[in-house]
């Protein structure tokens, strides 16, 4: 009764304040109600200028970020993806154990798309072939049961944005595809959740030997990266905080094993974080096996080989989750073959995200990798460009004039100088030439200059396959499309080294905002830009607040926060759904 | 930023007030934290008296209500069910369209069971055979993939409670099993939700004819009972309130058709409600086809036959939901054969829920039906019992002495008298005998007495297959088990008509608390006891508050209320999950 009274009162409140709520929503989503109107308008006005058609493949971080940031009404956008929603993937490990519900971290792409002044259409279909010659993509309806006959169709494009992501990489290990769970999609997380409960229910059946129960409760995670580590931590929390209350007799039989081929888990993080994580896992009783390669997975056992000693081991398991890096999707692989990009992990693009060897095709996110141009390839052209007076020699003054453009075009120079703690290019040259003069007329010894730059290219690293990178690339590309006409007239990029004039746009630059590694028990390690490292209890709150503020929409933000609240109060649900 | 600040403050508040929260929870669940302790105690004490083993088959309304209400520690309980949770099924239609999330209406059975002083074990398995002779049930693990070899096991019982529910009844209509959705389980509701979104996504694909789009957006519901009607209403709301915003061009192509073989929808309700519902549906544009029998369902079309005219019609469809009454589960059918109950819809029990022809087996809920004993079968014995002085005649005084016991044993007498508006048995007799005397010594004409009761048995009706009935039966049976020893010594039931003494317990009596039929657009019709009928806008709030107060646990209550809130603010999610 108390509850229903409360509810009635709350709904009354809702009704009397609904205007207020709508106003708040309008302000916070950047014009929720306004957006409807403008969307309707954009549909009804007769277009006099023929619009360019942009086709976006994929609704992950890259594609969604692109669609969200595109504001130029000179384009018609068509999004093709087998998923009609965007998923906030950093919370996927939380979905595996019900800390957060699957629906709380997804947002229909149509919802994201309609909040804009640009006409965006969406097709729930899978692209299975790209035809760059006829500017066409071939698609297939994602669910083909009730759609007879017309399952396949083609879409023409003027510009194509490939943002199809990657798939899990099994490194061709036998049995992985058939017997392991992956953790890339929402459905994967839901299946893992069901399987964990299944293992506990199975192990509760009567007449089983203790050995059999132990086997069913042996959880193996392969891969000590952030996803694997976070899943191991979530699973440990789920078992100790929730399942142990419902299955008290099974608690001592549970074992969580994390298998990592490298020497440490979280090896892309600072050493302090790695140490902290390994010690935390040891205290929690999570069995971390370092330097162990998986050689085979059968339906009953997982086999590993110690990299150092060559020892072979077998472990019977209840569930294996495979989380070790990414591989190329077949359709991307096929497209790479077509355009002559063979022997690569992903679509190779230039610094403006244009796919090499194609026209009007862009690629971003996990399916792409930026091929940064090397300084040494262009060194002669650079020197020639800097030598304004065509004297055949370079002085400091001449070099200073072009250095900004050059560092923009070749960011590895800046990274190198930062690492060596040089203040500017003069110090870099000085370090090689060895003299102390800084006068602008000082002649630069070209041979030494070349030598000073020779180490620079080694600084280039591929960007990590993370949500941050893809989201920044999507936003960057949308910004380029938004200002396409302006920048055609007033190019804003760096000087061209081999031709006259400037590049139309500044090249893409990744800005690292740090990374979190939740370790369970409300502890999180965070590596922030500028080499700051924090870990421990309070960090979890930072993590919560950063993620809550980053979620796609106010809807998902509220849902995730309320899921967290629910979990605090009621724990995680273990119904087998 | 604002959101994260709010969140941090809220969590601080949570932490400083967590003690308060726990206290509130303790009071409201009737001793949440206390229950843990007593559960642990009951596990650790050494039992000196051997306990009787009660096996409960099923975790639906009947089984769960029984387990929840059983308090007598003289029993060990073992629950066997393929579902490790209890689902609050009246909200299933809401799950189909995401008004409420599936997880919000389920509660793990282990959670329900552990709050008691009785040892309750649970096995996630399906019972496939009952052996009443050896007092054994045969079970099979519900998921058999990872459990090799020992998939099957048996469980012995002293008492067996069969509460396995029913399955959907296709009336052997060809193609229904293969092509239609049902709406009995949580998974059914989830599948329907996905299929609705699928239909919209399919219909959005390019190059389809308008006819094809219309076909994909043709939703057919078969069965005009409360479930079918509520689903039609939910679907209509989902389409008009949410999907029409995301798929504006498809809105005019959607068609919802409700097919009912009878003359009216909701025919178990008052005529006023039926009228109101039919008019509301007409205004909403839901196409109600009355008197139409479904003859066949293919993968493309559903065929109907008009009962009056015999006209045959075919309707191409996108999705069909079949919701027309219940049928017997195969395992129950098999058990009925074993115990000689053939040609019946469900397990026949006596008024104490004991399965006829068995020993120590009880059945309740949708899989059972109470075989009320007829007055006319026992009339001679009743007269003999009433004739205390063995005079061979009956007077009013003698009859009055036994009438309470008789009406308790044969509730149809009371129903009959209520309907005829007789105040007591004397008026009943008077109506037949025709004299006005009420003196206690008045002799009763036995032939007339028999005649007066002859119409009574026709009043007997089977109880409806509803959650209310099953829940009341479960609570009744648990109460009997709780007081088994007491009532062995002091029987509290009515006088036995054919033997000496009294029955041990009062027979089960169903108390109808009314029924709701949500009609969409926040309108609900309600039929309350005593022939009260309400419908219209405000009723939805009554429905919400009644259901919120009835949900299994505080957890589910809070989740459902917060789901309703979410829906008010953000609408329903249409991501294809």
Can you tell me about this structure?
The structure is a homodimer of 577-residue chains. Chain A has 577 residues and is α/β, with parallel strands linked by helices. Chain A contains 21 helices and 25 strands. In chain A, the strands form eight sheets. Chain A has a seven-stranded mixed β-sheet. The radius of gyration of chain A is 27 Å and the shape is globular. The model of chain A is unreliable at 1-46 (pLDDT under 50). At the A-B interface, helix 1, helix 3, strand 4, helix 6 and strand 5 of A face helix 1, helix 2, strand 4, strand 5 and helix 8 of B.
SSE topology:
Two copies of one chain form a homodimer.
Chain A: H1 2-16, H2 18-28, H3 32-44, E1 52-57, H4 61-69, E2 75-81, E3 85-87, H5 92-96, E4 106-108, H6 109-114, E5 119-131, E6 136-141, E7 152-156, E8 159-162, E9 167-168, H7 176-179, H8 186-203, H9 210-216, E10 218-222, H10 226-246, E11 255-260, H11 271-284, E12 287-290, E13 292-297, E14 301-306, E15 312-316, E16 319-322, E17 326-327, H12 330-338, E18 347-349, E19 361-363, E20 368-370, H13 375-386, E21 394-395, H14 396-409, H15 411-420, H16 425-433, E22 443-444, H17 446-454, H18 467-482, H19 484-489, E23 515-520, E24 523-528, E25 532-536, H20 539-550, H21 554-570
Parallel strand pairs in A: 1-2, 1-8, 2-5, 8-19, 10-11, 10-16, 11-12, 18-20
Antiparallel strand pairs in A: 3-4, 5-6, 6-7, 9-17, 13-14, 14-15, 21-22, 23-24, 24-25
């Amino acid at each position: 009764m108390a509850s229903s009274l409360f509810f009635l009162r709350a709904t009354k409140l809702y009704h009397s304040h609904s205007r207020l709520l709508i106003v708040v929503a309008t302000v916070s989503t950047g014009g929720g109600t306004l957006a409807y109107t403008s969307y309707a308008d954009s549909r009804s006005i007769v277009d006099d200028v023929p619009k360019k058609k942009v086709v976006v493949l994929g609704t992950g971080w890259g594609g969604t970020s692109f669609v969200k940031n595109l504001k130029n009404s000179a384009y018609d956008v068509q999004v093709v993806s087998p998923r009609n929603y965007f998923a906030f993937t950093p919370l996927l490990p939380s979905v595996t154990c019900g800390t957060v519900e699957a629906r709380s971290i997804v947002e229909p792409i149509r919802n994201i798309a309609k909040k804009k002044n640009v006409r965006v259409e969406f097709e729930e279909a899978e692209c299975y072939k790209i035809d760059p010659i006829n500017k066409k993509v071939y698609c297939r309806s994602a669910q083909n049961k009730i759609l007879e006959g017309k399952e396949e169709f083609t879409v023409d494009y003027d510009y194509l944005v490939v943002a199809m992501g990657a798939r899990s990489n099994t490194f061709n290990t036998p049995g992985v595809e058939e017997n392991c769970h992956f953790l890339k999609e929402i459905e994967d997380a839901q299946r893992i959740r069901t399987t964990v409960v299944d293992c506990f229910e199975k192990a509760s059946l009567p007449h089983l030997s203790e050995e059999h129960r132990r086997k069913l409760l042996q959880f193996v995670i392969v891969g000590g990266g952030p996803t694997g580590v976070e899943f191991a931590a979530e699973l440990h929390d789920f078992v100790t905080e929730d399942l142990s209350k419902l299955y008290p007799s099974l608690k001592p039989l549970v074992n969580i094993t994390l298998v990592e081929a490298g020497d440490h888990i979280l090896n892309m993080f600072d050493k302090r974080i790695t140490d902290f994580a390994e010690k935390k896992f040891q205290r929690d009783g999570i069995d971390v096996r370092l330097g162990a390669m998986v050689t085979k997975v059968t339906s009953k056992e997982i086999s590993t080989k110690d990299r150092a000693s060559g020892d072979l081991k077998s472990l019977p398991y209840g569930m294996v989750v495979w989380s070790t890096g990414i591989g190329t999707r077949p359709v991307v692989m096929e497209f790479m073959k077509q355009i002559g990009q063979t022997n690569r992990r992903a679509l190779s693009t230039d610094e403006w995200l244009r796919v090499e060897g194609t026209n009007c095709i862009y690629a971003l996110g996990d399916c792409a990798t930026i091929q940064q141009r090397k300084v040494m390839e262009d060194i002669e052209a650079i020197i020639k460009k800097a030598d304004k007076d065509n004297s055949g020699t370079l002085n400091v003054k001449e070099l200073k004039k072009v250095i900004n453009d050059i560092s923009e075009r070749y960011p590895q120079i800046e990274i190198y100088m930062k690492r060596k703690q040089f203040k500017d290019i003069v110090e870099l040259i000085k370090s090689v030439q060895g003299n102390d003069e800084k006068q602008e007329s000082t002649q630069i010894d070209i041979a030494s200059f070349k030598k000073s730059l020779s180490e620079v290219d080694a600084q280039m690293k591929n960007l990590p396959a993370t949500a941050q990178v893809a989201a920044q690339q999507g936003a960057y590309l949308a910004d380029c499309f938004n200002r396409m006409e302006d920048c055609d007239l007033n190019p804003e990029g760096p000087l061209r080294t081999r031709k006259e004039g400037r590049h139309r746009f500044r090249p893409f630059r990744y800005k690292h905002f740090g990374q979190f590694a939740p370790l369970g028990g409300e502890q999180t390690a965070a590596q922030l830009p500028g080499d700051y490292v924090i870990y421990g209890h309070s960090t979890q709150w930072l993590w919560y607040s950063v993620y809550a503020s980053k979620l796609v929409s106010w809807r998902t933000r509220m849902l995730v926060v309320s899921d967290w609240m629910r979990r605090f109060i009621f724990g995680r649900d273990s119904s087998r759904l």
